[in-house]
Amino acid sequence: MTVTASARRKARHYAMQALYQWQMAGASLNAIEAEFHADNDMSKTDVDYFRELFHGVAKNLDDVEAAFAPHLDRKIDDLDPVSRALLRMSTYELQNRIDVPYKVVINEAVALAKKFGPTDAFKYINGILDKTAADLRKAEVQADRRG
Questions:
Q1: How many Cα neighbours within 13 Å face the side chain of 68?
Q2: CB count, 10 Å around CB of 76?
Q3: Where does the NusB/RsmB/TIM44 domain lie (predicted)?
Q4: Which of 7, 74, 80, 98 could form an S-S bond across to 46 if both were Cys, CB 3.0 to 4.6 Å?
């Protein structure tokens, strides 16, 4: 299957929801993933990307959180669960998927925050990820800003 932008978008959508569920319920990753495959039509989803984001965040949680935590104005546990899931997932992408431009990562997170997050959470997410991207993708961000 050729990976399309919409297949990646769906993968992020489901990965964010799976991370949300993992944070809230604490069920095993494999159980949550199996539930997503059973409950959702994954035919137009980049399933490998979904799996990588979901499992990658859980396996690298400390490193992921350490990358964005310095930019927060509150404790990670004080973030609403949607924002926490989005920051974790997007920071993982910034760290591990340099094939995906940082602007794409941020734009996708902002779109999901607008759809699922509390009012104006997208502005907060955008600000935190912008600073995190400047740390993790320094050369890419500087080149883009020089434009």
A1: 29
A2: 13
A3: 9-132
A4: 7
